[in-house]
Every structure is written in structure tokens, then in C-alpha cells.
Design goal:
364 residues; alpha/beta; six-stranded mixed sheet; four-stranded parallel sheet; 18 helices; 12 strands; 44% helix; globular; disordered N terminus
Length: 364
């Protein structure tokens, strides 16, 4: 009767086994990444992410630019989708039409049940009103990273965070370097000139004699050397409701109308019966902002330059049409047509605004 021989594992075999186990642990660790959101909170997410839901309005463009496509963008705000599909971005990326909008309401309130079904790797949400917008998701175990656009630093922060989420930190840094250079170049010109800042009001919406305006000194106002009259009046909120009388009292030099609101155009201000007394109206200095969101450091640089050109037309002579064409090639890898540049620059709506057609109507 033969005996079964049992051999002890060799030392080499044990070492290989331990190494394999350690390697497996390393692989598990490599499958996650820690990001820090606008609250300063560390959020651990899968790496690389396969799906991202973005609820704030201006931020999908930044993801599309950094990721060079929409394949990982699974949900956006319905208002963002409407704006994108009605604009040039929707022409460049028609697949945006298939992105879901049922995970969040237009007012940024999340649909927790649908988010749980969709199972995005991470949701980007506004930091503000976190009890309504963030807590319901986190309480349900959903990974949420907050963003804020209150300052230049927080805007740059979410671009860097997106770079880390997408595993494309070098590309995000290239956008931030571009933003740094743009801000520095504008500041150098303004420092040499030593001019007083043009005083502006930024209108988000209107209803007869009632207006919603941006209350705080937005980062792109500061970068472009402009002063917000609503901030001068003591407002610090992102948006505030005021009457036409307030605008008359503030006497802005320039009136801007938000591109995100298709229901209001410069003609509505230029022909407004109460605002006819404003110097900005008398001088035709009412402008629809370009369809390039200034709230992101991925593309906002073009808006910074546009605001500086409007505020100081004799100091800045940038060929904005060429700058936009080159910028979109860098951001999205897309070549723009002349008609698309016209649309981005709001040539139709700004046709009656002072100096606009001459400055931005053709390549110089």
C-alpha cells in the first residue's frame, strides 16, 4: 500500500503567493481615487470613472472639453440640455440630445430614486443649499462632489477636480494655465492704462419692470476689470431681484444680458420705457453675453477677453473671432464655421449695440 507524500510549499512559492496577494491589494487600491470638493470634503470614487452626472448648469461644457467627448456624461440639468442643444455646443456634439435629464429638476433638486437606478460613479452638485440639493443623495449612499462658482479659486477648483475624476489632470492643468495667462495679460494692460473701472449690471431675467441681476462681484468681472453696481449697492448673493428704479439709481455704464436666458435680448432693454434714461441705453451699450460660459476655467478665458473688449474698446484689440476659433479647437478639437462663430458671439442679437458689429463682425 503506497503512502501519499505531502510536500511543504517551497519558500519561493510562498513568496510568489504573498506577492500575488499584495499585487491584488494594489489593484484594488488603484481602482479608487480621492477627490476634494468645494466643501473641502474628501470623496472616494471609482477610478477610472465610467459615468458622471452633472447638475449645475455651466459645468457640463468643462467635462466635455476635458474628456474630449460626452461618453461618460450620463445626466445633466434639463435647462443645461436646452441651452446646449440650442447653441453651438449642441451642433458640435449632437449626442448631447441623448443625455438623461430626469435625474434632477430644473431647480437642482435631485431625483434620488432615479439616481439610484442610474448608479453614476459620482454626481456633481451645487454646494449652495446643500440640505435640499446634496443631503438627500448622500443620505441614500450616492457619491456627491460639490462645486461652487463664487470665486475664481472655486471655479479653478472644479476644473482641477474634473481632471482628477476623469484621469486627465494634465489636460485640466493646460486649461488652468491658459486661464492664468489670460488674467495676467488683461491685468497688465489695465495696470498700465490706470483707468477707472466701467460700472456694469448683469441681468439674468426680467418681467416688465422687475429684474433679476447678479449681485456679487463675479470672478469674470474682476478678471476683466469691471465693477458690478449691484455689489456696490451692498448685494452679495449670486442673484437678486430688483426694480427698474434701482437700475436707474445705480446708473451703470454698460448693461449685460445673460446668454443662458433666451427669453431676453438687448432690444428688450434698449426699448424699455423706464430704462430709456440710462446712459448705457442712450449710448447703446447693452450686450448679450457670448454663448461661452465665463463660469468655467475651461473656456471662460474667451469670455474674460470679450468682457475686457466691451469694457475697454480702445485698450483691447483682440481678434475675438480668431481667438474663439482657436479656443474651440483647443477645448473641443472642433473647427467652427463662420456661422457658428456668429452664433457664439451673438451677432444677431447684438447688431444694434454700440460698436459691436465693427469689433466682432468679421476677422480683422
Amino acid at each position: 500500500m503506497s503512502a501519499t507524500i505531502r510536500r511543504r510549499p517551497s519558500l519561493g512559492f510562498l513568496i510568489l503567493g504573498i506577492a500575488a496577494l499584495l499585487g491584488s491589494s494594489a489593484l484594488v487600491a488603484a481602482a479608487e481615487v480621492t477627490i476634494q470638493d468645494s466643501r473641502g470634503k474628501d470623496v472616494v470614487i471609482a477610478s477610472p470613472v465610467k459615468s458622471v452626472a452633472i447638475f449645475p448648469l455651466p459645468i457640463p461644457e468643462a467635462l466635455i472639453a476635458i474628456d474630449q467627448g460626452t461618453s461618460r456624461l450620463v445626466a445633466i440639468n434639463p435647462r443645461a440640455k436646452t441651452a446646449l442643444m440650442n447653441g453651438v455646443i449642441g451642433q458640435l456634439f449632437p449626442e448631447i440630445s441623448a443625455i438623461r435629464t430626469d435625474l434632477v429638476a430644473p431647480n437642482f433638486i435631485p431625483n434620488v430614486e432615479e439616481i439610484l437606478k442610474a448608479r453614476p460613479d459620482v454626481v456633481l452638485q451645487w454646494q449652495a443649499k446643500g440640505d435640499e440639493r446634496v443631503a438627500p443623495m448622500e443620505n441614500a449612499g450616492i457619491k456627491v462632489a460639490t462645486v461652487s462658482t463664487e470665486s475664481r479659486e472655486t471655479r479653478r477648483g472644479y476644473v482641477a477636480m474634473l481632471g482628477k475624476i476623469l484621469g486627465k489632470e494634465d489636460r485640466a492643468k493646460a486649461f488652468l494655465d491658459w486661464e492664468d495667462k489670460t488674467v495676467a495679460d488683461i491685468a497688465a494692460v489695465l495696470k498700465t492704462a490706470g483707468r477707472p473701472k466701467p460700472r456694469i449690471v448683469f441681468i439674468d431675467s426680467m418681467n416688465d419692470n422687475e429684474f433679476v441681476v447678479f449681485g456679487r462681484e463675479e470672478a469674470y468681472f474682476i478678471a476683466s476689470g469691471l465693477a458690478n453696481v449691484a455689489t456696490e449697492a451692498g448685494f452679495t448673493e449670486g442673484s437678486v431681484k430688483v426694480g427698474a428704479e434701482s437700475l436707474l439709481q445705480w446708473k451703470p455704464d454698460i448693461v449685460f444680458v445673460n446668454y443662458y436666458n433666451d427669453a431676453i435680448k438687448p432690444a428688450d432693454i434698449l426699448q424699455h420705457p423706464v430704462l430709456a434714461g440710462l446712459d448705457a441705453v442712450k449710448n447703446g451699450r447693452v450686450y448679450k453675453t457670448p454663448a461661452i460660459d465665463p463660469a468655467t476655467a475651461a473656456g471662460g478665458e474667451l469670455a474674460y477677453q470679450w468682457f475686457a473688449e466691451i469694457g475697454y474698446p480702445d485698450l483691447f484689440k483682440e481678434d475675438m473671432r480668431t481667438a474663439v476659433a482657436k479656443g474651440f479647437d483647443f477645448l473641443y478639437g472642433k473647427q467652427l464655421t463662420a456661422a457658428q462663430i456668429d452664433k457664439l458671439m451673438q451677432m444677431d442679437w447684438n447688431g444694434a449695440s454700440a460698436g459691436y458689429a465693427e469689433a466682432f463682425g468679421k476677422t480683422q
